[in-house]
Write a structure and sequence with these properties.
Length: 350
Amino acid sequence: MRILVATDAWHPQINGVVRTLSATATHARKFGTELFFLTPNDFAGLPLPGYSEIRLALPLAAKVRRKIIETRPDAIHIATEGPVGLATRHYCRRHNVRFTTSFHTAFPAYVAARSPIPEQWVWRYLRWFHDQSDRVMVASNALASELQEHGFQRIVRWSRGVDTALFKPDPEQTLDLPRPIFLNVGRVAVEKNLEAFLALDLPGTKVVVGDGPARASLTKKYPNAVFLGIKEGKDLAKIYAAADVFVFPSRTDTFGLVLLEALASGLPVAALPIPGVKAVIGTAPVCVLDNDLRAACLQALRLSRRACREFAEGWSWENCTRHFIRHAAWLPSAQDFEPPFEFEPQTFPG
């Protein structure tokens, strides 16, 4: 089976969407499926102010059409609602080609945090974007409920995973910093609410891994915090394993892959009680959720690192890939495809 994925989020960007799509492509080969990508790298583009790694693609309709014809996909999936996704949606609608979409981030809240555009305007656009999709894939029940409240339909589950071979406990890993070490990993941007973490009166050291438009101002404002920049692969895994608590101050994330990476590393979590965190953690004793983030950080120090690891072992990229392939295989063009695994599709009521 051949699936074309159109996405505005792609390398060199480092975020949950890119990691999810990359991991899904890798594991899909095990099930006889090949993913092909239509990304900003396929087009000319403009730099996005404040985002050195992001280009605003300028997709030409003729080039989108040529890529699709050359790929000869059995199914088309549109992962994002930006210019690349919009151009692909236009092609599919014009040529009566059915497609699936996915909803990854709290985009309306992000836009509202950066501009005077009302959230309801953004929701209206997103509802229009997804309304012709055969299936809208989401990672959690909480996000599914939110979309249903905004009038979205045909919502199905696309789970997430973590590389437990890469992210794992390692007692030998250390950071030459005063302990305890409170860690955050992710984009350094206003919507991540990092100041709620950096302003806390905590013992030890606060460490931030990642980059983004707010890094320069936050580095200047919080000189006692340690900003390590972007880290990937084994370098990132070592930092997780060397920390004491993972702090997740976001109020907008719909599903934090970094939570799974931290837990797989044996790192307990302190977070605000938002639906995106609850979707990952549930009631497992591996995280402290509290609107008093300082109290959550200090209580998390007492949680079992072994329990964190055991919890993360229940998540896999293989299962994530099964969900994705099966939902794509429901399209009429892919009905002859029989995935080589047992699968019970997870859908949401209503």
